[in-house]
Design a protein that fits this description.
By secondary structure, this protein is of the alpha+beta class. It has three domains: 265 residues, Aminohydrolase, N-terminal nucleophile (Ntn) domain (Glutamine Phosphoribosylpyrophosphate, subunit 1, domain 1, 4-Layer Sandwich); 233 residues, HUPs (Rossmann fold, 3-Layer(aba) Sandwich); 70 residues, no CATH class. Helix content is 40%, strand content 15%. A hairpin with a 5-residue loop joins strand 5 and strand 6. Helix 8 crosses helix 24 and helix 11 packs across helix 29. The longest helix has 18 residues.
Length: 677
């Protein structure tokens, strides 16, 4: 797992050689083990290119030249004197092939194909063997080299062979092409900027900002999306002119023509119309596929640990991993509930996780979070998160920090809910809406997680609202559904459509958050539920095997996690087929355990121990958010929560996050821009 970056100068625009170094330096947390850089110049229409590789050590002395010093070595003169219009950079977290042969950017032997890559391709040994049978020879044991040889053999279509999580850039020098590729599910992020004949890309937005070619300015459309969905469903971000490459998509960049083509190479298809297996046979097949998926995710040259929440998803992964790894380390986050009340008193999962850890004989570690822990971590957390997304994520930061003390890799149960129907009350809202219009209306009403259309009209300041089309949020919501996913002939069709939407949006948001907060601690998170074979099978399983009451319409407030727990206690609904399959490896006490999301008792904390912090940050009329939001509106929402009239914990968290986001990025070091751009 790593951090990647790159710069292209279109129309022969030359690039400052230190820009790529700055971009990679600010992502050092993603790859503390090694760094590498490629500086190249290629004239339009010419096949050959001049290039120069630099290691981290070779770049240290030239850095001083920014301050007017004279080059003192031949190496420095080579870097400074020549023009460059293509740059690739890499920060490495060494997981597979820990030697220098895994160094990046990596090339083929004749230096015509170059790659900078972030991720893991779990089936690379099989692809490598296939390539060797075709005559390819390898100098490393890394999966990176498989990308290069695979491209030589099959072109960009090689991505269809990859089973893993990845974001990479590949420069095909003879053909003047650069490909930017993101994995099927969007587990690894990749951002880009294209303006003024400069094209930038990187694993993190702050790397783009650090290049000196783009300043941090707010994107009103991204702001509107975030405060509607607590997520961004398009390729936009909160930053003006900075885009996120969509999951399952690649960009083909013709350097000579400054032409960029975007292509979707994969998409989910929740389609059970041709499924012919009985429920018992389905459970058996699912069990075997799951075992293979977890085993594939154990390929590593460094120790692997596992998150262990006490639930079925992480418990099942841990059960399989523990059979193949010696003395597996497991990690759980718990909460101090001394100031919690009501249904929040059940939020701590340590007892259940300790039960599984003891059963599987893992080496188990826990971190306990208190009310004040959010306050202490917010500035650092938002700096790492940068691209605000779903949920109240500070507990994830603390648990990732714990896991990072014991290794570089951790397994996560993310994806099990979205594939197998873990949120029944969401899907049931649309049951009975057998027209597209009614379906969209009902589901859009639910997914306005923060502010609905009318509230946003009151919330934004007039000078901000004039740059936002409030009504566009509904169109954005509807645009997620491709034309191939609009069949609504039955209740099951409606549920499959909802599963499709949540995998594309909510799960994708979770992946963005997990990537940023784990990599903040130089930790790689792997998600075995997103194994290609498991996803391909899971998306064909009919909803009637996943859910108990597919014709029931329910409404539950997701701001009240305790009510969700009560719902599960009453119905035992959700992920029925997965429970049946996993009963072979974990006890009934876990497979039938009431689902409990990883959530702090913030509803109570925001009315109690954290209230002074909230008031200090958000009820000060000089707070930065009031350059965008109406003070009275925000104040009323906070008072609603304090009085117990309404649980606004997600909204308050988002206001807090946005306040720190403005401080870190809009008012921080990223507000200036290189005068030459």
């Amino acid at each position: 797992m790593c951090g990647i970056a790159g710069i292209i100068g279109f129309n022969n625009r030359l690039i400052e050689p230190f820009a790529i170094k700055h971009m990679c330096d600010i992502m050092a947390h993603r790859g503390p083990d090694d760094a590498g850089y490629l500086l190249a110049y290629q004239k339009p229409g010419k096949m050959e290119a001049k290039w120069h590789e630099l290691t981290e050590q070779e770049f240290l002395r030239p850095l001083y030249l920014e301050y007017g010093n004279t080059p003192t070595t031949i190496e420095e003169n080579r870097v400074i004197a020549k023009p460059w219009n293509i740059m690739l950079g890499h920060r490495r977290l060494a997981i597979i092939d820990l030697t220098y042969t895994g160094h990046q950017p990596m090339s083929n032997r004749n230096k015509t194909i170059w790659v900078t890559y972030n991720g893991e391709i779990y089936n690379f040994p099989e692809i490598k063997h296939e390539l060797e049978q075709k005559g390819h020879t390898f100098f490393s044991t890394s999966d990176t080299e498989v990308i290069i040889h695979g491209y030589e053999e099959w072109g960009i279509d090689v991505i269809h062979k990859f089973n893993g999580m990845f974001a990479f850039a590949l420069w095909d020098q003879p053909n003047h092409l650069i490909f930017l590729v993101r994995d099927r599910y969007g587990i690894k992020p990749l951002y880009y900027y294209n303006k003024n004949d400069i094209f930038l890309f990187a694993s993190e937005i702050k790397a783009l900002l650090k290049s000196g070619y783009v300043a941090a300015n707010i994107n009103p459309d991204g702001l509107n999306e975030y405060f509607t969905f607590q997520n961004i469903l398009t390729d936009k971000t909160l930053f003006k002119d900075i885009h996120l490459l969509e999951a399952g998509t690649y960009l083909g960049i013709e350097i000579d023509k400054a032409k960029i083509e975007k292509k979707v190479y994969w998409d989910y298809s929740f389609d059970s119309s041709n499924f012919n297996y009985s429920e018992d046979d389905t459970a058996k097949i699912l069990y075997n596929i799951f075992l293979d998926a977890v085993k594939r995710h154990l390929i590593s040259d460094v120790p692997i640990g596992s998150y262990l929440s006490g639930g079925m998803d992480s418990g099942s992964i841990t059960a399989v991993a523990a059979k193949h790894l010696k003395r597996l380390s497991t990690f759980t986050g718990g909460f101090d509930l001394s100031s919690a009340s009501g249904l929040e008193l059940s939020f701590d999962e340590r007892e259940a996780s300790e039960f599984i850890a003891n059963l599987l004989k893992t080496e188990h570690y826990e971190v306990v979070m208190h009310a004040g822990d959010m306050e202490h971590v917010m500035p650092k957390l938002i700096w790492h998160l940068e691209d605000l997304r779903v949920g109240q994520s500070y507990p994830n930061y603390y648990v990732a920090r714990l896991a990072s003390k014991f290794g570089k890799v951790v397994l996560s149960g993310a994806g099990g809910d979205e594939l197998f129907g873990g949120y029944p009350w969401r899907y049931y809202r649309t049951v009975g809406s057998l027209t597209k219009q009614e379906y969209f209306k009902r589901y859009y009403e639910f997914w306005q997680r923060l502010l609905n259309d009318e509230e946003r009209k009151k919330a934004f300041l007039p000078e901000i609202e004039k740059h936002i089309d409030i009504s566009s949020s509904f169109d954005i919501f509807c645009s997620v559904f491709s034309k191939n996913h609009l069949g609504l002939k039955s209740f099951e069709d409606a549920i499959n459509l909802s599963l499709y939407f949540e995998a594309k949006t909510f799960l994708h948001g979770l992946f963005i958050v997990e990537d940023k907060l784990s990599m903040a601690h130089s930790l790689e998170t792997r998600v075995p539920f997103m194994d290609n074979e498991l996803v391909d099978f899971g998306t064909t399983i009919p909803p009637r095997y996943k859910l108990r009451e597919i014709e029931r319409i329910l409404k539950i407030d997701e701001n009240e996690p305790g009510k969700l727990k009560r719902y599960y206690e009453q119905t035992g609904d959700g992920k029925i087929i997965l429970r049946k399959a996993m009963s072979k490896i974990i006890p009934e006490k876990i497979t039938n355990r009431v689902k409990q999301g990883f959530s702090a008792p913030d509803a109570s904390w925001f009315r109690g121990e954290s209230i002074d912090y909230i008031k200090k940050l958000l009820l000060d009329k000089k707070a930065r958010i009031y350059n965008y939001f109406n003070y009275d509106f925000v104040n009323n929402k906070i008072q609603e929560h304090i009085s117990g009239k309404r649980n606004n914990r997600l909204l308050i968290w988002s206001f807090l996050s946005f306040e720190w986001w403005i401080r870190e990025f809009i008012e921080g070091e990223y507000k200036t821009i290189n005068s030459k751009s």
